[in-house]
């Protein structure tokens, strides 16, 4: 039952995070920043899409594979957020909120991966 609850929490949090990313990317295009925002949009929304796919997995291996992809997308998203902050497209306060959300998602997924015995190299 605990894994099912984690998946629901993860599904909800990854969807809310994706929504925040979509809204941020809309703002970034108003600033005429298209390249980095597109990368962020792809990785930031892919987290939730892969979590949704994991929830419909047909085997434990399929589930772990999708969570692993979502985990890697969360790491990529954190990279794009740092780059946007350091290039002064993303204010520090907004960066901190989104980075914390992405980090929380990463930690949840890492925990799920550990419990399914497919462990990434290290937790970031």
Automatic annotation (TrEMBL):
It comes from Christiangramia antarctica. It comes from the Bacteria. This is Four helix bundle protein. It holds the Pfam family 23S_rRNA_IVP. InterPro entries: 23S_rRNA-intervening_sequence, 23S_rRNA_IVS_sf.
């Amino acid at each position: 039952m605990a894994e099912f609850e984690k998946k629901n929490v993860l599904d909800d949090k990854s969807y809310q995070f994706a929504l925040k990313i979509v809204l941020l990317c809309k703002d970034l295009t108003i600033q005429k920043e298209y390249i980095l925002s597109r990368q962020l949009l792809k990785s930031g929304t892919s987290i939730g899409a892969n979590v949704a796919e994991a929830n419909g997995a047909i085997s434990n291996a399929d589930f772990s594979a999708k969570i692993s992809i979502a985990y890697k997308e969360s790491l990529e998203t954190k990279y794009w957020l740092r780059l946007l902050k350091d290039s002064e497209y993303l204010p520090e306060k907004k960066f901190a909120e989104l980075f914390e959300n992405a980090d929380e998602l990463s930690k949840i997924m890492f925990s799920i991966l550990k419990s399914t015995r497919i462990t990434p190299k290290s937790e970031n």
